[in-house]
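Sequence decides. Consider this:

===
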Amino acid sequence: MNIRSGILVVWCLVVAAGTVSAFDHTHAAFAEVLDAYVQDGLVDYRGLQEQPETLRRYLRDVAMVSPEAFRSWDENRQIAFLVNLYNAQTLDLIIRHYPLPTIRDIGSIFTGPWGQRVVNLFGRITTLDTLEHKILRVNYQRPGIHFALVCAAMGCPPLRGEPYVGDRLDEQFRDQGKQFLAESSKNRLDAENGILYLSPIFKWFREDFEKQSGSVLAFIGEYLPMEQRKMLETESFRIRYTDYDWSLNDIPRTR
């Protein structure tokens, strides 16, 4: 190799490294997708299926990020990156199988949708299960994550119409929690009968909420109106879990 060729190779490596490290933390491409296809927490899967280019460009950009670059970011940027990847990859998984009534129709009895090896992260192909349970839940003690991850079901928290960004992550998580707990079909306080109805999410991930606040009730109290918060603190309520709606969070079509 002559000197000129060597310089060219080094220059290409520097450019490539700079490209990987200069990840767009505004997640602009994903923002474009969410703005175009998400309305009131529901998704226009048919429209997205017809024009998936921006979504897949975003997923390619995410796949280019190296572990070294990722570790150089602060915690909020790391969480935003991983949550957006989860939600973006879920959208892509759905449109690859659309139309379908529920995400649970993807895969088999042995390997459901969350066990599909579809997530391209740090040079390896992994699963949504791994991303949620072995990376996000293990490495970050932030139960607000459960308000942000959306599994394409009506029972999930609503899909936000904007990507998560490190600079506003705490604000976004708090707003998500308030929105989710305000959905009476999933969470509601029946003061007259002394019953607190909660989404099964609070049962499935109880230990995450307890680690943060000591109890599920203490955790959700932070997201409720003051009047309801005081009732939880001063009165005794039984907890009952609402039914989880697994139907697809698809925008209804009118003929």
